[in-house]
């Protein structure tokens, strides 16, 4: 982390001041709506999953779903517009900051937003009685790991897009399927083997497994080291790709 990275983070926070009220309202309303509509509504038709009430079983994964979607939005359409519309990235690297500072500064900014949303979600989940273990205090770390493993690969992908008509396809083909089939609403064991294998490759599923285990005070389905390894691979590969692609876009004139 460098001074330039912190300056990039500060720039994003200053720009965010115009939106923070609506974002803060969303951070409070979203978990309430999720808990009522899915946890209570759908939960009214589902007695238990693996011996756990459906509301408690689904609460922590819903948090990871919200984190994933928030991160995906920031790392696709926002990155696209900063590269192609406002050319904010080009302006930043025209200073003493480099491409790595752009990436790290954006991640720091995302961490602040993700942690705020996480705390709000956990507080509301506790009010609904969906928290059963003090291990839930590890949830912010899980949310941060999923956000990083999501943001960097999607930043790399968004950096290759020069036409905004492709952005909806990213949501329909990546974001929505990942949310629906990452063990949030039902266990991956209910899927065919080939589909379950694809789910286990998703960074969101690893976060969901860790988050659910923490909220319920249980062991995760996979060993902790395996979750860390998969999330680490996504993060490292995403960082390498996004650094390379962004460097080409802003320095080599491939706009």
UniProtKB/TrEMBL annotation:
Its main location: membrane. The keyword Repeat does not apply. Coiled coil: none annotated. It comes from Streptomyces albospinus. The lineage of its organism: Bacteria, Bacillati, Actinomycetota, Actinomycetes, Kitasatosporales. This is Transport permease protein. It is found in: Cell membrane; Membrane. Residues 22-249 form the ABC transmembrane type-2 domain. Keywords: Antibiotic resistance, Cell membrane, Membrane, Transmembrane, Transmembrane helix, Transport. InterPro entries: ABC2_TM, ABC2_TM_bact-type, ABC_2_transport, Nod_factor_ABC_transporter. Belongs to the ABC-2 integral membrane protein family. PANTHER family: ABC-TYPE MULTIDRUG TRANSPORT SYSTEM, PERMEASE COMPONENT, NODULATION PROTEIN J. The chain crosses the membrane at residues 24-46, 52-68, 116-135, 141-162, 169-186, 222-241. The keyword Transport applies. It is a multi-pass membrane protein. It comes from the Bacteria.
